[in-house]
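Why run this: before we spend reagent on co-expression, it is cheaper to look at a predicted model of the complex and decide which construct boundaries make sense. The entries below are exactly what would go into the expression plan.
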Amino acid sequence: MKLLWFHLMPYTELPEDFATRYGSVWVDIDPRLFDPKRGHQLYNEFMDELEHAADVGFDGICVNEHHSNGYGLMPSPNLIASALCRRTRDAAIVVMGNSLALYNPPTRVAEEFAMLDCISGGRLVAGFPVGTPMDTCYAYGQNPSTLRARYHEAHDLIVQAWKAEAPFAFHGRFNKQRYVNVWPRPIQKPHPPIWIPGGGSVETWQWCAREDYVYAYLSYFGYQAGRAVMQGFWDEMDRLGKDRNPYRAGFLQFVGVAETREEAMRLYREPAEYFYGRCLSVDARFAAPPGYTTEATIRSKVTSQLAQAARKADESKRAFSAPTFEEIVEKGYVVVGSPDEVAEQLRTVATELNVGQLMLLLQFGNMRRDATLYNTELFAKRVLPQLRDLFDDRWENRWWPKPLPREERVVPTRGAAR
Amino acid sequence: MSAPAERAIRVNGAPCRVWEKGEGAPLGVLAPFGGWPRWTPFLEALSTRRRVIVPSPPGFPGGLGHDRLDDLPDWIAATLDLLEGADLAGADLVGLSVGGTLAAEAAAFSPGIAKRLVLVAPFGLYDAAEPTADPWAQRLEHLPALLCADPARLAAELLPTSGEDAVERQVLVQRAFEAAARLLWPNVELGLHKRLHRVRQPVLLVWGSGDRVVPPSYAKRFAAGIAGPTELREIAGAGHRVDLDAPEALAEMILAFLGPSIADRGRRS
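The model came back. Tokens follow.
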């Protein structure tokens, strides 16, 4: 299986009474809470951490896009990814991803991803999220009623642009471009692997099956809560006659590993309580713009995790009760323990959910650099080797980047690339 | 309150419900934010003196096809199709809230479409100094109090009637909010201030004094832009959904502005 190191890049200095005093971490978060000097430190530390994860043997490093968000400091993940391409040698660069409908024209995504694919020597995974309501409809003012149609059209334009062998005119419903001609061209042919971060919508599952893309369920609520969604996904694959290749699926899991469970409980309590108590304080009024959820999904009664998160935050605000670390661990939001315990739990997660692309959050909340590096290194040394071989006896990962041969990839001449 | 006659016309190939009740000169009514899942006391009060015709705009309860409309010209064409299809071309026209936007835009693009206009708390203008509320960034449980002085009236509209499937009602409600969003997201205006001077017919502007969505001061902004003669009226205490908060008073005010219909005159003579 593939083990990927994911960074959300949370702002680490939200005040203790954030949820009750400031309300929403997203959309209308108080801009005075951001200290740019601290931002300077955080961006550099966070990029160090991603690079370090690549150094110690994670298969891929992941970044994603959020706007006006106190737990996700990457309005442009491509900027970060670009720097990571230069400072890493072999890890996949997984951008999860660009919210396609926000780019005008979407050709911009085709261009920037092609740049990243060239710079990295063909190590890019192209993530195409619709984007959350908070990011797309509120922070970026996109119309929720046209968002999905725009997203799908943008996808068609980008893929066509990557495959085209001559300039072409694109005449879409929302995008009209007389001359589409992406320079540079991506190294990977016909294009980098496409992964779709999504919620629990049946249409997304069907679309991933049809296009043969990876479906990634980026849940903040761990494997117990994710089980129903992944079950729905695999049932749908069965129904559509697709195989159960675990590499069709990605899943996000928070992990805190230490020499002993007791040490892990001590070490990761504060960052976990920070994340679930402050970072998920999302005002429910930004969670469900009309039209964002399709009528088919309303009828299927699958509630998105964002709506769930907002509702939870909402409930917790009314009678403020952010989850304690004990609850967080018990519900499986964060997998915690010694290396062997964590490996055992993650083996269960991967097997039960049938997930081959496992994304791990080893930095979360206000976790400091030393704890993050410790978590990362211990995982790489003592957990990763126990899991790496899972699935490979039976399944081929057709959704992994195919870079240039190592000897053909350029090493930056100034400073050591890792 | 007996049920209105109901038929469907097609707009862009999608069915849109048309209700009709009463006698006299035709009076078109375009629904407010959220629409009308069922016949209401306000429409009933209007129908006592006029032949009330209520065509449902695309996506509003009773109408489909909002997802085929991508921009303002699409919505204008659909509204004109809707009014013409309901035999309302040249008739008096009432538009409330989002329906008021459609009525004003239709009149600006096609001045002959309405004889006289009544706009009840229409969306369509935006003044940064006194911004309209964002009706789509609300928790569902807060929406009734935002839209109505008496929240229970709207809350009742959002709930399924007995025997109605709760999920289908949720779909209907969300679709109505989505249709309004599709037209007016995010700042509830589409540049109407550049076209208001083309509204040349007599216009009655009505606001609830307690409107928390479109501040009552917007009545003056509309009046200043409209070329035709305008009358401004306020209904004390009512919220944005004046039709729910003060159905009889609103109907009375509209009927007084439009004057006695031919049928009334016929009865009196």
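Chain A touches chain B at residues 137-138, 141, 143-146, 149, 173-174, 284-286, 288-291, 293, 295, 298-299, 301, 314 (CB under 8 Å). DSSP finds 14 helices and eleven strands in chain A. Bring this page to Monday's planning discussion.
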